[in-house]
Structure formats: structure tokens, C-alpha cells
Amino acid sequence: MKNFALTAIVTVVAAAVAQATPISAAAKDAQSAANEYRAAVMACDMGWCCDSMYPPIKRTLADRLASRTQGDNTDYIMGKKKMSPEEAQARMKKNLDALRSQYVEMGRQMKAGGFKVERFVIGAPYAEYELVSSSSALHSVRKGSQKKTYQEAEDIKLQGDRSRLVVLPTTLWFSVPDPATGRRIRMERRDFIYAVRDEAYRDNVNSRGTVQNKWYFIDSNTSVNTLRTYFPTLPLNIKTPDTGDRPLQ
After folding, report:
1. From CA 83, how far away is CA 233, in angstroms rounded?
2. How confident is the model at residue 21, as a pLDDT?
3. Residue 137: exposed, middle, or buried by beta-carbon count in 10 A (0-12, 13-18, 19+)?
4. From CA 130, how far away is CA 24, in angstroms rounded?
5. Residues of the chain below pLDDT 50
6. How far apart are CA 27 and CA 32, in angstroms?
7. Number of C-alpha atoms within 13 angstroms, CB side, residue 153?
8. Rounded to whole angstroms, how far apart are CA atoms 226 and 218?
9. For 20, which DSSP code?
10. Which helix (H) or strand (E) holds 92?
11. Is the whole-model pTM more than 0.90?
12. Which residues pair with 132 in a beta bridge?
């Protein structure tokens, strides 16, 4: 019963911390930082897109790629095989290099196939979320419960891991050749990207491998459930703009 009460309190506090806030100067800074992302898309520079990905998600994707291409990866995951810290670091570097190579090849194939970006616009911030880790919130609640007091959500935001996620709408105009006629087909694609930065680390320990206050980018194909793996207090019903493709004349 006691654990249930703590869980309920953490849920309420985390929800209060992770609510979408009015667009801040930090969110506008995210839009400005995304100009580099825009330039990479215009040039089909998928290598840069990989480099600018949020590091924890990039490591997860690299592990997934390795699990499909390296037969012994399952044994490491299941704990049947062990490796030293040096071996683990070398293995991760190998996996990350393989992931980047895949992205670079993707960009090469896009260019070779005649994919051409005509214009790419990143709009004003659509939504913004300030996030704390669930462990930070739970630590604060437990500490408060010992004193029979509970901290406000604003107080929790000032300690522990703290990150910011901004939803940026995008509009892409592109063309591809029609294999049947050779004519170019023009399309408009409305989508969005996530801009993410870590603003504080609990006990000043950076366990995510990020640069503090540096913006990283995540494409919209990443589900909210996946994002919540790294940001447990992110609401399930985050605000995102409408998406879709339409042909152009």
C-alpha cells in the first residue's frame, strides 16, 4: 500500500512537471539550431542527421542494427557472454560506425535515385515539454515522505536530471522521377521533428553521453513510447502537428 501511494504521488508530480509549457526563448533557440538540420536535409546529408541524433537513441538503434547483422549479439544481451569495459566500448564504436555508414548509404541512394529537395522549412515551435527523470521525482518524493512533506513540481525541476523536448513542424517540397514516364513527380510532405537537449544532470553525473544544453534531433518515426524510455515523464498525448503528403502540380 505504501509503494502504491508513492507511485501515485510520483505520477501526479511527474505529470505536473512534464506539462506542455508556453513557448519559451529556449524553444525558439531550438528552432534556430535546427537550421543545420535543414541544411543537411537539403543536401541529403544523412550522415549529419545520424551525427545529430540524440545519443541514447542512436546507441539503441546501433544495437538493433548489430543484433540483425552480428550473430553473437544475443549472447551478450542474455548475459551468456561477457566483455571487458574496453571491449564493450570498442564494440559500441563499431556498432555506431555501422549505423552511420547505413545512414550515409541511404543518402547516397536517395541522390542516385533522383530524389531532389526543392525546399525545406522548419516552422515555429509547436509544443514544448520540460522533463525530469522518474528517478529524480521518486527520490524527491521519498525524501519528502520522511519529513511528512512533499515538494512542489517546480522544486523537483531544479534538481536531478532535467531535459527539454520541443516539437518543430516541418514542410518538405521534393521531387522524384516517375519510372514509367521519366517525368518528375513533385510532392509536399508535412511532418515534424523533435529537438531535445539535456539541461541538468543529477549529482552532476552525465550518464547519457550528451553535451549539456546542445540540441539534438529525432525524427517523427520515433514513437512516443520509445521517447518515454528515455523521458518517462513525457505525456503520452503530446501535441504534434498534422502530417501527410500531397502531390503538387
Report:
1. 33
2. 54
3. buried
4. 11
5. 1-17, 19, 137-158
6. 9
7. 16
8. 11
9. B
10. helix 85-112
11. no
12. 162
